[in-house]
Amino acid sequence: MVGADIRSVQNESDLNNLSEADVLFINSMGVLFNEHEKHQILAARKKGVKIINIYPAHGYNLTNISPWVYHRILAYYDYGGLENYVSLLKYVKNSLCGIKTKVPPPVKMSV
After folding, report:
1. What phi, psi does 42 have (nearest 5°)?
2. 13 and 54 share one domain
3. What are the pLDDT digits (tens) for 41-78?
4. Structural domain containing residue 107
5. Which of 8, 14, 69, 93 has the most CB atoms around its CB within 10 Å?
6. In the chain, how many domains are there?
7. Which ranges of 8-111 does DSSP label H, i.e. alpha helix?
8. Residues 32, 33, 38, 42: what is their CA dihedral angle, to the nearest 10 degrees?
9. Is the CB of residue 101 less than 8 Å from the CB of residue 90?
10. How far is C-alpha 31 from the geometric centre of its chain's CA atoms?
């Protein structure tokens, strides 16, 4: 694997190609998936796509990565800021895609 496949879902066509990705990062805070969306996500999961579901609505968590990795990703996400978001992507590449790179720990940002 040379690089990680990172995509943004903008339309129905994108939703139908989720199984081609390496990792899906889903921020579903307050979002309820319709049946078609759920089906597409579960089909991608079945094909081995790693799914990171941040703050799933109503307890419907589609995440299929280890809890330790998930909680580390949440730390980068929750601490916020450009530095943590860049590190989050590096961490995903490193821990889920096998692309080895130096990854700093999450940093609490001052408000």
Report:
1. -65, -35
2. yes
3. 899 999 999 999 888 876 678 899 999 999 999 999 99
4. 67-111
5. 93
6. 2
7. 12-15, 35-46, 67-79, 81-96
8. -60
9. yes
10. 15
